[in-house]
Amino acid sequence: MEHPLVYQPSGRLAPLTVPQLLGGGLVAGVLVGAAYGVAACLNPLKMANPLILIAAGLVLATVMRAVVRWAKCRNPWLAAGGGAVAGAAAVYASWVAWIFALAGGSAESLFFGPGQLRVLAGLLAVDGVWSVLGMSVNGTALRALWTGEGMLLVALAAVWPALMVLRTPYSEDDGSWAVQHETMKFSEIKPGRREAFTGALRRGSFGGLAQLKPAPDGAACFTACTRRFGKDSGPLVFLTLVSVDTKAQPSGKLVMTSTQLTRNLAVETAVWTKMRDQVAQAAAPTRTPVAAPPTAPQPAPSSASQSASQTAASPAFKAAPAPAPDAASAAPNFLPPTDLDDRTASPNGLPGMPPAA
Predict the structure, then answer these.
(1) What is the distance between the terminal CA atoms of the chain, rounded to a whole angstrom?
(2) What backbone torsions phi and psi does residue 342 show, to the nearest 5 degrees?
(3) Helices in 103-130 by DSSP H: which ranges?
(4) Which of 67, 117, 328, 350 has its CB 3.0 to 4.6 Å from that of 24, i.e. a possible disulfide?
(5) Within 10 A of 162 (CB to CB), how many other CB atoms are there?
């Protein structure tokens, strides 16, 4: 086949991908980092600051996913680089905002360069600025804590967008991310056949997909098939198949487990259309034939009518066959064959007619 069986990002970039990625990342990093710095400084319960940090990192990662989609970046390494820039901007902005809030909103504290921030952080780490359970956090422990905070912000902002590029198909045909999806349930694939089924799909043999039957309603074990496509369903769709098994524990509790068979398998749209038609036919209501209404009993025929019908049905009263028409009556315009050539001209110039005497 001309296309990869399992989706792989093409690595292509739009003309404005890099400016959009860097610009959007810097803006997002500054805004999220500043919000985190102020919240961490003003929060009276310092033990909750790690939760605020994680929340800020997830928000920044979510925003960077949107920036990567907006920039149409199909290169995971570039997406990770843009996220790292956003994370670094968030760390710097969080420090500036934290010092601004610590200084009581002094405008002079907003104009710290990276070198000045490093020196100030070293001075603050000597005695510490907050304590936990009556114990002051300072020195090497505080420096390690600050370093870990920065690394977490950078990691979340870089890794999550890169994973999005790897796992979300991009339709090169219509220039859009395949974020729309449709899911259908099919019959269970037995555990002993799943490895062979997946191997056949990866080799480009899609006959197993056509053999899947729609799952009955309320089935405990089934195969979930999800189609992902862009704004226009082009010649290819991306299928993800997951086997779902529901088993009862000795306590009576039902436990559902899922096993991913394949992810973002590129197949022709016609294959999916055939699978969907099978589900539609299985879901269509069956029509039961309606019995014909009973007919009223007919009166017994009289003896005169019986004799008349027998007379009409006897061979002696069959209609005689019509005589075969003779040649003259059957074809009044028929001319017997002559030795004249069809090319002989007639008085009126028509071929096939005898010439005038």
Answers:
(1) 79
(2) -60, -20
(3) 114-127
(4) 67
(5) 24
34, 88 Cβ separation under 8 angstroms:
no
Residue whose C-alpha is closest to residue 240's, from 194, 181, 162, 175? 181
Which amino acid does the sequence have at 307?
S
Cα 20–chain centre separation: 26
**What are the b/e assignments for 48-83, b being 16+ CB within 10 Å?**
ebeeebeebbebbbbbbbebbbebbbbbbebbbbbb
- DSSP for 182-229 reads EEEEEPPPPHHHHHHHHHHHHTT--HHHHHPPBPPTT-SSEEEEEEEE
Cα–Cα dist 198/152, whole Å:
37
Give the torsion sign (CA, 271, 277, 278, 280). positive
Instruction: Point out which residues pair with 268 in neighbouring strands.
Output: 236
> Is residue 181 within 8 Å of 246, Cβ to Cβ?
no
Question: pTM, whole model, 2 decimals?
Answer: 0.66
pLDDT by position in tens, the chain (length 357): 444 578 888 888 888 999 999 999 999 999 999 999 999 888 887 778 889 999 999 999 999 999 999 999 999 999 999 999 999 999 999 988 888 887 776 666 666 667 777 777 777 777 666 666 566 667 777 788 888 889 999 999 999 999 999 988 888 777 788 877 788 888 888 888 888 888 888 787 877 887 788 888 888 888 888 888 777 666 778 888 899 888 888 888 888 888 888 888 888 888 888 888 877 777 766 555 555 555 655 555 555 455 444 444 444 333 334 444 444 444 443 334 434 344 444 444 444 444 444
